[in-house]
Amino acid sequence: MGEESWLLSYADLITNLLLFFVVLLSAANLSKGRMQQIAKSLSGAEMPASLEAIRKDIDARIAAQKLKDLVSTNVTNDGLEIALNSGLVFDSGKAVIRPEMEAIVSSMLKTLEPYGQRYSFAVEGHTDAKPVNAGSAFSSNWDLAAERAIVVRERLEAVGIPRQRVRVEGYADTKPLPPEQLVGLTDEQKNARLRRVVVRIY
Prior knowledge:
Blueprint: H1 6-28, H2 32-43, H3 51-65, E1 71-76, E2 79-85, H4 86-89, H5 99-110, E3 121-126, H6 141-158, E4 166-172, H7 187-194, E5 196-201
Parallel strand pairs: 3-4
Antiparallel strand pairs: 1-2, 2-5, 3-5
């Protein structure tokens, strides 16, 4: 029995190593946003340049410029989402930013420039479920969503976000908003919320 006692220590070592790698794997699969939320809950303090801190900065600009109908923000496990109301930024069925909105959109996106080396960015194009009008320059909502996302990506690059840190995603109507965000809205108001371009920082 004494000659085999080393097996107990060996088994303990293997178990500890297994637990160590499980913890490492779990941490590797956590997004920056989730890691920051955990760090805040443990320390009680906001991390410098965290997604929540960026959100507060943008929300302050939204309030100061009275742009609540144009821009909304939300921090999720997937990152900080900055949603632009496509109905206000683009004319119906088009992917050209309205001239009167150019400076406003660029100003909002410029807020993100200091974080261009720290985070990655995804620009998501979304539409409602209505088919594009006959004679439109776009064959489907997929094309429209993707082109609008590309236009906003170009503005991100113009304000100083490195192009290699940005990707474009077109979803058309395949990723609707959660029902609780649409409660009490008319069908037209719901469709307006669904038509959005989201800049996601992660």
